[in-house]
Amino acid sequence: MKYLRQHRIAIRYLNQHLSRNQFLILSGILVGLSAGTAAVFLKSAVHYINLLTETQLEIFSYPYLNLFLPLIGILLTVWVVKRFLKGKDGKGIANILQDISQRSGVVPKYKIYSQVITSALTVGFGGSAGLESPIAVTGAAIGSNYARTYRMTYRERILLLACGVASGIAAAFNAPITGLMFAFEVILVGVVFSDFIPLIISTVSATLLSKIILNDDILFEFKSLREFDYINVPLYISLGIFSGLVSVYYSRITKKIDFFFHDYLQWNAYYKAIFGGLIIALLCFLFPPLFGEGYQSIKYLASNTPQEILKGTFFNFSGYNQWTIILFSGLIILTKVLATSITLASGGSGGNFAPSLFTGAFMGFFFSSAINLLGFRQIPVDNFTLVGMCGILSGVMYAPLTGIFLIAEITGGYDLIIPLMIVATSSYIIAKFYEPHSMDVKELIKGKKIFTENYDDNIISLIKIHEIITKDYVSVTEDSTLAQLSELFKNSDHNIIVINDHHGQYKGFIVFDKVRKLLLDHNLQQDHITAQELIQKDIEKLDSNASINQIIDIFDKTDIRLIPIFEDGVFEGFVSKNLLLTAYRIKLKLTLN
Questions:
Q1: Is beta strand 506-511 parallel, antiparallel or unpaired with respect to 496-500?
Q2: Euclidean distance between CA atoms 231 and 209, whole angstroms
Q3: DSSP codes of every residue in 221-254
Q4: Chain-centre distance of CA 458, in angstroms?
Q5: What's in the keyword line of the UniProt record (predicted)?
Q6: Residue 350, by phi and psi: left (phi above 0), alpha (psi -120 to 50) or beta?
């Protein structure tokens, strides 16, 4: 704790004595190293847990004992979430996007450690999920809370949040450009800023840290590839289309399983974990490569040793042939989606980044091996395996640039850049045709809870309803006379009078502009005109949970400038068009400064 206090004092001193750009660069380095450290720790922890389970395999004859490790991991994850995190797991990239749009980039502190713990338990014990999304969430929390600690502006907070995400992804794959592309395509959608240097330097810092600490067994990289042959372009286009269709299958199955566990299955969280864990056990019994992240299986496919994936399976019988491996890989494509979705929906923690790469590798292998065996043409299976990974990542995450640069970086060059572009683009177009938004953000976009490419809508989403409610009014009973109302308007700054009945219940309101002529008409007998006769009829009423977009629609369709708002039937005040416009100007200025 003493060291931490000294560290904060030193950074505050630098904040006061460095220029803004200098401090942002320093902050990018610190956030990058912190997020990189978290990524290295998580990847290493899961790697060594997996080594322990592999040792168990040899002793207890896989898969009969270790089948139940994912069940244990999911149960432990649920227990940690309930016991220590009070039910808030904070998992998923979608939650970070919601933090950006709904909470101005303020990410709760517990997310700094929650995802590291829960995903290590889930994936370390063999849950069929990935670590990259938890790493991204952890990095986002580190960047956001760093900015809050040193009282940085909204734009600086969003920038450092993105630095944390990009650094985590960069460290996980030893791929700095991939981290940058992921931040731009997924995290910073609809956010406008021009400070790129801190983002770049944070990913470089994290990547260097990862490269120094992680060994080759943990890093995900490939070296042996064949040169790109332009004659195969039609086949790469076909692979891209196939990738898009598989991606749509992936997203729709994921949504159905998520609905089943969260909406249909009204069980206790532990019962859901047991049920899901038992299904994972069955799937891993039939298809052992579904156990854990599955990166080792990808390496087998890309290194032309696919027979290794059959070890410990019923498919590994005497006299099996190449078609057996192809059939097995096709079944893996279908079941990996089930395994990942059930792992996450039943209470496990992780993401879809690694599973999409896994599915893509098996799909590329399946496609190219079938082409070769059918005799249409002899094509490089290793190339198609890796390019398939890019295809599914692009179609599932809606991040084609991330997919392109990831495969380019982990293969040590850009030899496959043309087929990667072809497959990524084709897959993205097909997936977007069937599903306009990715599975992680589809519902949030419908509810306008996250940013989109529409910058104006993004500004509006930052406005909170309490910011545009006015309580600047006085109240009278409905039998008050026009003369009394005139005195109220004359002797106060209020231009709204709320009319209540004798029980204090809201009946309506009167605006000064609407009764101005009556007040100035001295020929009227003002004592004979009551407030009840002058009440402005409510064209619209709102509940306190109404969205800003609903409010804007009402203002657009009518000429009213005030809308009464109620909470549980009790009058709370008025939503003001003037306050709405003011709030918009403030949020616009906030995002541009």
A1: antiparallel
A2: 41
A3: -----PPP-GGGHHHHHHHHHHHHHHHHHHHHHH
A4: 16
A5: CBS domain, Chloride, Chloride channel, Ion channel, Ion transport, Membrane, Transmembrane, Transmembrane helix, Transport
A6: left
* Cα dihedral 13/16/19/25 (nearest 10): 40
Q: Going along 450-495, which residue ranges are E strands?
A: 469-470, 474-477
**Rounded to an integer, what distance in angstroms lies between the CA atom of residue 62 and that of residue 66?**
6
Q: Which two structure tokens, joined as six digits, stand for 455?
A: 């910058």
Which tokens go with 250?
A: 């992936």
- Backbone φ/ψ region at 529: left (φ over 0), alpha (ψ -120 to 50), beta: beta
Rounded CA separation 37/210 (Å): 8
Q: Which residue type does 428 have?
A: Y
Kindly calculate the radius of gyration of the chain based on its CA atoms and give it in whole angstroms: 29
Bridge-based pairing state of the strands 469-470 and 474-477: unpaired
**Whether the Cβ atoms of residue 496 and residue 509 lie closer than 8 Å to each other:** yes
Could you tell me which of 490, 489, 507 has the C-alpha nearest to residue 498?
507
Q: At what angle do helices 154-173 and 577-592 cross, to 10 degrees?
A: 50
For 73, residues 6+ apart whose C-beta sits below 8 A from its C-beta are 121, 122, 123, 124, 125, 126, 127, 277, 348
Q: List, in order of start, the domains of the chain with CATH numbers.
A: 2-213 (1.10.3080.10), 230-448 (1.10.3080.10), 463-592 (3.10.580.10)
Helix (H) or strand (E) holding 218: none
Pairing of strands 570-576, 562-567: antiparallel
Q: In whole angstroms, give the CA distance from residue 181 to residue 400.
A: 9
pTM: 0.85
- Structure token digits, residue 586: 């403030």
